[in-house]
Every structure is written in structure tokens, then in C-alpha cells.
Amino acid sequence: MNTIRYPQPDHSEPCVDVLGRPLTDLRISVIDQCNFRCTYCMPAELYPSDYPFLPSSERLSFDQIETMARAFVRLGVNKIRITGGEPLLRKNLEQLIERLARLTTPDGRAVSIALTTNGSLLAAKARSLKDAGLERVTVSLDSLDNGIFQRMNGVDFPVEKVLHGIEVAQTVGLNPVKVNMVVQKGVNDSQIVPLARHFRHTGVNLRLIEFMDVGGIGAWSRTHVVTSEAARALIAAEFPLVPLAEGKPVLHETASRYRYLDGGGEVGFISSVSQPFCGDCSRVRVSSDGKLFTCLFAQDGLDLRPHLDSAQGLEALLRQHWQRRGDRYSEVRGALDQLGGRKQYPTVRMSLVGG
Predict the structure, then answer these.
(1) In angstroms, rounded to a whole number, what is the distance separating the alpha carbons of residues 156 and 183?
(2) What is the pTM of this model?
(3) 150 burial type by CB count under 10 A (0-12 exposed, 13-18 middle, 19+ buried)
(4) CA 322 to CA 282: how far, in whole Å?
(5) Strands, sheet with 205-210, edge to edge from the N-terminal-most edge strand
(6) Is the pLDDT reported for residue 2 higher than 50?
(7) Cα separation of 183 and 166, whole Å?
């Protein structure tokens, strides 16, 4: 029988794609199920109660995830974010966090471990997650108004429980807690200033995200987008802002950050539609079923499952795949706008690949 010979890993050579972008951030979706039915991500009409989510046997195991994460870290990843679906629905998630928190980069630095959640289970889980090694948490919260929030989450979940989860996360030390608000014109744009007011002087960093044409949102249109510039103007009119890093994203980060002039903290703006940042994107995503996606707007992914039994072979495969990467969907979206400013093709299901 012929033996497959993989090239020896060379950690001295940076792993960069065709546009010179390094691989530094790994996002792992641990479950495709969610207990919310948010209108911009998993609307109930597309994801009914009998929707065929992945059975547990088809999700990557914790052993497989750890093997994969180790290979990515050897290639330059120094940040890992756990996503979903709702990742806190994954049983014994703390065990995975504990494993990943032990990883170190080739030069001996600890790997940063973060998690994104809708906050519904955060109050009950925050302490055990922190004890397992989780460093930071990001909570999705689109409104302080309970009526708006319940309509958007699709399951009548009360906003007070999410706010309580944020408070508990702060108390146990998952700081700084970040809150992500997806802003849609005519839906929750009235909540921009109330959310900013609520989280000022609390240590929570609010980030406002332009409504994007991702996942199964076939009805997306640019007319539904509130630009970061418009959102920033609304906040600044009431609470003057000062740009950090000249109002541009820090290297390999997604948000343009501003601080309140009176010292009330900071707020960030993620402008994927109006000011794309593809040229600086260092993120790779792995879906719950083990497929690798090099862009949030991808249609197809590379199946990693057949390669998870050989760490050396996996590392070589990941390097080669990243080196061929040329994705820059958000930067070419402007040309697609000439075709009507609507979503142009189906992208991977958001809950499967994570945000």
C-alpha cells in the first residue's frame, strides 16, 4: 500500500493568502441549533420547530475540534471564538473551552478564547465558562424595548433575562463584555441611542453592525441598511464621540472604535456593507459539521472530517487552502448593487457556520 507523504510543516513561514492576509482568527460553530428565531438569521418561517438540524452524531466531537484547533494554531491562529447556532446549547461546552484554553502558539503565547451568545443561558453558564478558561463573551442584543426585542427574536424571549446574563458575565470577570446590535431600518433603528445610553459607564462595549446579506435572508436589500455613519451621527448628537485609531478598525479587527468624550466608555461600528474591510480579514470559520469556510458569504466549504486523523496532513491541507484564498465578497458587493442592491446568491446557513 502506498504511503501518503505530506510536506513537513514550516512554522517559520507565515501562512498568508493570495492577498497577503495572515491567518490569525478561528471561529468554530459547535452546534447549528438555536433557541431563538431571529428575523435576520433564522426566521421561523424558514426554520420551523421540525427543521432538520444536525443530529449530534454529525457534529464535530470535542476531540476532533481540539485536533483541528491545534493545527490552526500552528499556522498562526491566536484567537478562537466559539459560535453557533447558540453555542450554550452544546452539552458540556465547558469541557471544550478547558481544552482550547490550554493551547499555546508556537512562540509560547496563550490563545485567546471567546464566545458569542444570544445571552439566554448566560446567567446560568457564565461562572462555569469562566472557570473553564473562557476570557471574553459577546452578546447579541438588538433592542432594549421588550416588544421590539421579542418580535425580533421570534420566541418572545424577554430582554430582561439577557440583560441579567450580561451583568452576571461582568461579575464573574468575562470582560470586557461586548454587545452586538444588528441595525435594520424601520425595525430597531429607534433603539440605537437607548442602547448607547444604557451601556455607557457600565464597562460594556456596544457594537453596531450593518444589516448584511448573509445566511438565508433572501429578502435582504440595501434599503434596509442603516449605515455606520448614520448610526454614529445619532449617538454623537447626544453623546459626543472621539475616534480611536482615527476611526478605523485596528489591524485584523472588524469594528471602527470610538470613545465617549466624557469618559463613558466606547462604542464600535462594523461597516461590512458601507465600508468593507475584506482587505484586512484574517478570519476562517469551521461549521458544526466540519466544513471550512474562508468567507462569511461563501457558498461551499472544504470538508475537514476525512483529514482529522492526521495532524500533520491536516496542517498541510489548511495551509494550502488558505494560501489559495482570494475571497473579498463585501468589496465587490458594490458592483452587484448595479443589479438591484439585493442578495445575489445563496450563502451558507448562518447557524451552521456561525457569525
Answers:
(1) 19
(2) 0.89
(3) middle
(4) 10
(5) 241-243, 256-260, 266-270, 205-210, 178-183, 136-140, 112-117, 79-83, 25-29, 283-286, 291-293, 302-303
(6) no
(7) 20
